[in-house]
Every structure is written in structure tokens, then in C-alpha cells.
Design goal:
single chain; mainly alpha; Methane Monooxygenase Hydroxylase, Chain G, domain 1
């Protein structure tokens, strides 16, 4: 009887050790997710002060990469937690690990803490994405008003944001005048990337 109880305790101990090994791995992944969040937050603030076209373009590429990485990590972490949850349920079939046992309460407490941490991290990340999107929309609207002395309607504003096109500037050979292309929902502009940054920003002197 004593040997059976001891064997059950040893099995519970081994499983709990394995559990905490998995927990440390998930914590490391959550830390990396936080690092991506702070990187995106820093890049967003930095984007407000940059005025070099190449630097801004590189920064936006990094921001896009951070968003993609964060979403990928969050998806993987969700899968890890689902596996861990199933492992907790299976663990209750072992001696000394049944529902309500010390081992089970420890697992549930740690698991709930990790799940809350992931949810909080994603809430913060989504709030930051919304802030970036909202501020970018306001910036585009302000730039449009500076050029045309009127606010764009919602369809035009959506077009400008989706194509990253605020203004197309054709520079004549004598460069005495500049011709501006006014994007509208009924006018599909050529790919904005075809226009050199010098031409895109010649008039505004503002950068994305």
C-alpha cells in the first residue's frame, strides 16, 4: 500500500516537473511577444519624427514585419495553451492528481495566469494597432487638406490609405510648375511605388 502511494506521488512529481518545463517555454514565448509589442510601439513613435523617405520606408517595413510576427506568435501560443489544457485534464487520471488535488490546483492556477497574460498582451497589441491605424488615417486626411484645401470623403480617404497614395506629382522638364493628380474612388491611380520619393514628396515635404 505504501509503495503504491509512493509510486503515485513520484508520478505526480514527474508530471509536475514536466509541466513547469512547458510553462517556462511558454513564458519565454510570451516575453518575445511583449518584445515585439514594444518594438512596434517604439517604431510608431519614431515614425512621427523621421523625415528621410528611405528611413521611413524601412521603418514601415519593420512595423509590418512586427505585426505579422506578433500575430503568428499569438496563434502558436494559443495552440500551446490548448495542448497544456488537455494535458491538465489528462493528468487528473493519475494517482494523487485528481480534480481538486494540490497538483491539479497548481496546474490550474498557473495555466489561468498564462492565459490571462496572453489575453492581456493581445488586448494591448490590438489597441496599439488601432491607435496606429487611427493616427495614420488622421495624418493622411490632414495631408490631403493641406494640398487641396478640403477634406476628403470617406471613400477617397480609404483609397489613399489602401494605395498609400496621397499625391502624384508630375514634374515638367523645366520644373517651373507641378501637376498634381487628385485620387478619387472613380480614378484608379497607377502603382504608387512607380513614383520616386522625390516626386511623391516634392510638394508636401511630408513622408509616410
Amino acid at each position: 500500500m505504501g509503495s503504491t502511494a509512493e509510486a503515485g506521488w513520484c508520478a505526480a512529481r514527474v508530471n509536475l516537473d514536466k509541466f513547469f518545463t512547458d510553462i517556462e517555454f511558454i513564458k519565454d514565448e510570451l516575453k518575445e511577444l511583449d518584445d515585439v509589442y514594444f518594438s512596434l510601439q517604439y517604431s510608431h513613435e519614431q515614425s512621427k519624427t523621421l523625415h528621410n523617405a528611405s528611413a521611413v520606408k524601412d521603418l514601415r517595413s519593420r512595423m509590418d514585419a512586427d505585426v505579422t510576427l506578433a500575430l503568428k506568435k499569438a496563434k502558436v501560443l494559443k495552440l500551446y495553451l490548448e495542448v497544456l489544457d488537455r494535458s491538465n485534464a489528462a493528468n487528473r487520471s493519475l494517482p494523487n492528481c485528481r480534480l481538486g488535488s494540490s497538483s491539479d490546483r497548481t496546474r490550474i492556477s498557473v495555466f489561468n495566469g498564462l492565459r490571462k497574460k496572453l489575453n492581456d498582451s493581445m488586448d494591448s497589441f490590438n489597441a496599439l494597432r488601432q491607435k496606429i491605424s487611427s493616427e495614420y488615417r488622421e495624418t493622411v486626411q490632414r495631408k490631403y487638406y493641406t494640398v487641396f484645401d478640403e477634406n476628403p470623403d470617406e471613400k477617397t480617404l480609404d483609397l489613399l490609405i489602401s494605395t498609400e497614395a496621397l499625391l502624384f506629382v508630375a514634374i515638367p522638364k523645366d520644373e517651373s510648375t507641378s501637376l498634381y493628380f487628385r485620387p478619387t474612388p472613380n480614378t484608379i491611380p497607377p502603382p504608387f511605388d512607380l513614383y520616386p520619393w522625390s516626386k511623391r514628396m516634392r510638394f508636401l515635404k511630408w513622408h509616410y
